[in-house]
Write a structure and sequence with these properties.
Length: 137
């Protein structure tokens, strides 16, 4: 299996198809230690492979499930592959985290707007701003 460094070199050499295949194989390795999952997500996004970016986000979050930054990464990756209901549900988990509750409310507001629930969306966004007035900046 190719290392992340080897995959990065393939991308730099514009060998995108082999890079994408190797990256997909790497992302399927659940709970693999020593992998920089943020870099895997970044490379997958560069290659336009949102499914692989989601797999990497899930692997990264699995290493520290309560880390709000990892949770936001998974929510964003879910949104990128149009799994909006899952993203909205996961944003509720983020709302329980005192360090990132405003992000959770903002994200759920965003998805409620996508679902056409304007009043709910506004309510969630107001709650986000109430918790963190600087969130809007």
């Amino acid at each position: 299996m190719a290392s992340l460094q080897q995959i990065s070199e393939l991308v730099a050499q514009r060998q995108l198809a082999p890079a994408a295949t190797a990256l997909q194989k790497l992302a399927r390795q659940k709970n693999k230690q020593g992998v920089d999952w943020q870099s895997v997500m970044s490379l997958a996004n560069q290659l336009g492979d949102q499914d692989t970016a989601l797999a990497a986000a899930k692997n990264w979050r699995a290493q520290s499930p309560s880390d709000p930054m990892r949770l936001v990464a998974e929510i964003n990756a879910l949104g990128a592959v149009a799994r909006h209901k899952e993203a909205a549900l996961l944003s509720r988990e983020l709302q329980k985290n005192s360090r990132a509750a405003s992000d959770g409310y903002y994200l759920e507001g965003f998805y409620q707007a996508r679902f056409g629930n304007r009043d709910k969306a506004i309510s969630f966004c107001r709650q986000a701003i109430k918790l963190n007035p600087n969130h809007a900046t």
